[in-house]
């Protein structure tokens, strides 16, 4: 049986395959831009639960009366929730990530409110060797979040290690 017959699957053995997500380190090039779909609509309930779970007591996130007296006029979505959702939206592309090694910056550019839909786009800024081990390489991305009005709401710079093609720990050769 041809082990490369189904490129979206890892051949494990006779009639056994595992779904394969993401790109190998070798597939990334500087300048590539990925639009990650679908978008995610964030509710005020999601926001309140995030604030409760993280003990965030900033009234701007959940007190509508308080928020009416601010420049935003509505409760703001918690920044940690926005970052979590955007990072979660890119998982299929960067599935072979070994780990995040650096958060370069997290910039909030516009407010996000309950009911807004976030969309993620990432651009590859750097691709290079990992001098500490040969099984992975370094990649730096700029992750941009936009709302349903195509207004940029957030930019995140991060550097991560991605497994090289032959070193993925859950590939067929390791089973």
Automatic annotation (TrEMBL):
Originating species: Microbulbifer variabilis
Name of this chain's protein: MaoC family dehydratase
Alphabetized InterPro entries for the sequence: HotDog_dom_sf, MCH/BMMD
Top-level taxon of the source organism: Bacteria
Signal sequence segment: none
PANTHER family (UniProt xref): BETA-METHYLMALYL-COA DEHYDRATASE, MONOAMINE OXIDASE-RELATED
Residues forming coiled coils: none
């Amino acid at each position: 049986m041809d082990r490369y017959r189904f490129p979206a699957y890892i051949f494990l053995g006779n009639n056994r395959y595992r779904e394969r997500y993401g790109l190998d380190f070798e597939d990334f090039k500087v300048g590539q831009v990925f639009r990650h779909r679908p978008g995610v609509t964030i509710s005020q309930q999601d926001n309140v639960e995030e604030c409760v779970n993280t003990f965030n007591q900033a009234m701007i996130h959940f007190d509508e009366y308080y928020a009416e007296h601010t420049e935003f006029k509505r409760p703001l979505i918690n920044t940690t929730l926005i970052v979590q959702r955007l990072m979660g939206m890119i998982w299929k592309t960067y599935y072979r990530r070994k780990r995040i090694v650096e958060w370069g910056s997290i910039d909030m550019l516009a407010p996000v409110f309950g009911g807004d839909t976030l969309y993620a786009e990432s651009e590859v800024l750097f691709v290079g060797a990992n001098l500490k081990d040969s099984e992975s390489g370094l990649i730096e991305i700029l992750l941009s979040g936009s709302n349903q009005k195509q207004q940029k709401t957030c930019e995140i710079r991060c550097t991560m290690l991605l497994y090289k093609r032959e070193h993925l720990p859950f590939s067929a050769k390791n089973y």
